[in-house]
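Quiz preparation item.
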């Protein structure tokens, strides 16, 4: 939990989504220096019963089983493993246009992209998944195909093999 991961913006957007969809529940996974600040924001936004800060988890498969979609509100990023994991598991994703994220997410086709720090855009895209779960499922299916074809262990072995053959 670091400031550049954008939890602040997620919680601001989630507050709006929760107003529209009061049964919505959010999870924040991880630990870090922003823990207390994030927890205070959860309280300030009156989301104590709607957002769980579950700390570091070593059973992410179990967590993913209970997630309808993933939000990556980062201000800076490389290629987050959590993005690849969610896509591989067929979980719809809303993420910011930072780092290599736009190389994996084709906005409106394999997930939704928003500008970093744009709370209104983030809330809108999160709400779209709530409003149309069929579209969310279709996007997640297309995203899964990309990961299966381009980022699978078999594909990585082939790429390493090509490097050895060139040498």
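Solution:
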């Amino acid at each position: 939990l670091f400031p550049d991961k954008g939890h602040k913006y997620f919680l601001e957007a989630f507050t709006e989504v929760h107003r529209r969809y009061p049964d919505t529940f959010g999870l924040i996974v991880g630990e870090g220096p922003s823990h207390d600040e994030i927890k205070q924001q959860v309280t300030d936004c009156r989301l104590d019963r709607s957002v769980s800060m579950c700390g570091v988890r070593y059973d992410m498969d179990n967590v993913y089983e209970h997630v309808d979609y993933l939000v990556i509100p980062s201000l800076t990023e490389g290629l987050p493993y959590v993005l690849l994991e969610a896509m591989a598991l067929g979980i719809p994703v809303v993420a910011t246009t930072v780092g290599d994220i736009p190389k994996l997410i084709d906005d409106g086709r394999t997930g939704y992209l928003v500008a970093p720090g744009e709370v209104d855009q983030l809330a809108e895209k999160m709400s779209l998944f709530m409003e149309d779960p069929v579209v969310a499922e279709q996007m997640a299916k297309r995203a899964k195909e990309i990961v299966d074809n381009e980022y699978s262990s078999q594909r990585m072995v082939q790429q390493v093999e090509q490097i050895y053959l060139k040498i």
